[in-house]
Amino acid sequence: MPEQVIAVHRRAGAGTSRRFGSYLSLRDFEDAARRLLPKMLYGYVNGAVETRASMLEAEAVYGEFALIPNQLVDVSCRDQSRTLLGNRYASPFGVSPLGGAAIVAYDGDKVLAQAARVANVPMILSASSLTKLEDIHREYPGAWFQAYLPGDDLRIRAMLGRVAAAGFETLVVTADTPVPGNRENNVRSGFSMPLRITPKVALDSALHPRWFLGTVARTFLRSGVPHFENMDATQGPPMLSQNLVRNMDHRDRLSWQHVALIRDVWKGKLIIKGLLSRHDVAKARDVGADGIIASNHGGRQLDYAISPIRVLPELRAEAKSMAVMMDGGIRRGTDVVKALALGADFVFVGRPFLYAAAIGGADGVLHAMALLRDELDRNMALLGLRQLEEITSGIVRHVKGSPHA
Ligand SMILES: Cc1cc2nc3c(=O)[nH]c(=O)nc-3n(C[C@H](O)[C@H](O)[C@H](O)COP(=O)(O)O)c2cc1C
Q1: Nearest Cα to Cα of residue 107 among 367, 354, 298
Q2: I want to staple 231 with a disulfide (CB 3.0 to 4.6 A). Which of 190, 236, 361, 404 is the partner?
Q3: Is the pLDDT of residue 204 over 80?
Q4: 162 is a domain residue
Q5: Does 381 fall in a domain?
Q6: Distance between CA 130 and CA 144 in Å, rounded?
Q7: Which ligand 1 atom lies nearest to the CA of residue 172?
Q8: Please, what's the b/e burial string for 98-125 (b: 16 or more CB within 10 A of its CB; e: otherwise)?
């Protein structure tokens, strides 16, 4: 086990709880991150496309479902562990892929991996990350890798070869990004990837010295200019650049035919992320995928894309024996319960864990994970549930404006 992970392990528990004692829910990390990060960077994480309808709805939709508890059940031995794709995890949630994490939080990709390893939950490394995938695999051999693949057989084969050689066992192919989403907020704030240093960007950074010194200066002094390391089989462009653009060409050619090729070449578990239609779930099943992640990319791709939770029951029915995972707007233990009741085997959480990494590194993420775990544990007790398998559709009722009501 790498030394840093052992250190996180040792600090977990009482010491960490004292340091983060004022962080009582995942939202508390978001409020603190808003103060810590430059406006453009907070906007990059917090933002969504166009009207933001897709993101706002994905969070608000949980409010439409009410819970129905069973009382007077002996719930003294509760267990929230779950087996997913042959691995036993301590809780039914993990870390969504988060591009650019290492510019938001110091060593962001690593600290997310360290915390996930200590908490024994999955962490998905993003293709848009700034840390070599080989290093993350060493940090957490159980981490998954998410690829943004072009519709180009040669580049697909080369990339899968690299990911397999590093030792990853689970590959996530993101399907909802044929083109970048229309993120007007980034244009307005001057944020881009790679980052161009304009006077506006420089001023925004200078006004947030704790982030600038603790993340940017520290990264540059210790390891030089970060690069997009994992877009392709070879290293991508540097994070800071006046004129380079990331290589996103041919992503709009990626089709189910390529997924069939990927299935053929990739010997490990294969997950397709970003599906919302039952027809696509049927295609994923036909092609031999092991699971899907229902997701609207946190509202960052197609505006008005439906909230995953609304289509979960039909996706579950279509998936048959495939694993059904989802992400988007999970902020509370009750959100996890609702997602599981509506058909998910597992959920992923994006922004809150990234805010926690920015505020407190691996210890912060571990605290955020402990908050969610404790909420889920308490909710299980209050619902009369001892195991996740006892969560059924009978414990949720749609109470407001549902197309399924
Ligand atoms: C800053 C940021 C970067 C992201 N980068 C990626 C990425 O590289 N690949 C990907 O598949 N999804 C990416 N996503 C989407 C997340 O994986 C996830 O679907 C979404 O954030 C879940 O919603 P939540 O943030 O409400 O939990 C990103 C999201 C954010 C906020």
Answers
A1: 354
A2: 236
A3: yes
A4: yes
A5: no
A6: 16
A7: 11
A8: bbbbbbbbbbbbbbbbbbbbbbebbbbb
pLDDT at 241 over 50: yes
Closest CA to 265 of 161, 350, 382, 144: 161
Task: Give 240's strand partners.
Answer: 195
The pair of three-digit structure tokens given for residue 136, joined into one six-digit string: 């993350």
pLDDT at 77 over 80: yes
| pLDDT digits 0-9 by tens, 146-198 | 999 999 999 999 999 999 999 999 999 999 999 999 999 888 888 888 888 88
In a domain? residue 69 = no
Name all residues whose Cβ lies below 6 A of ligand 1.
45, 96-100, 126-128, 146, 174, 273, 295, 297-298, 300, 327-330, 349-351
- In the chain, the amino acid numbered 312 is L
Q: How many angstroms is it from 207 CA to the middle of ligand 1?
A: 26
- Residue 19 is predicted with a pLDDT of 87
Q: Show the domain range for 37.
A: 3-63+88-375
pTM of the model: 0.96
Q: Looking at residue 367, which CATH number applies to its domain?
A: 3.20.20.70
Cβ atoms within 10 Å of 284's Cβ, excluding its own: 26
- Which residues, 6+ apart, have CB-to-CB distance to 40 below 8 Å? 186, 189, 190, 191, 200, 201, 204
CA angle 245, 247, 253 (to 5 degrees): 135
Residue 141 is assigned to a structural domain of this protein: yes
- Active-site pick, 137, 227, 297, 367: 297
Instruction: Indicate the number of domains in the chain.
Output: 1
- Please report, to the nearest 10 degrees, the dihedral formed by the alpha carbons of residues 52, 403, 391, 30 taken in order: 10
Task: Specify the residue with its C-alpha closest to ligand 1, atom 10.
Answer: 97
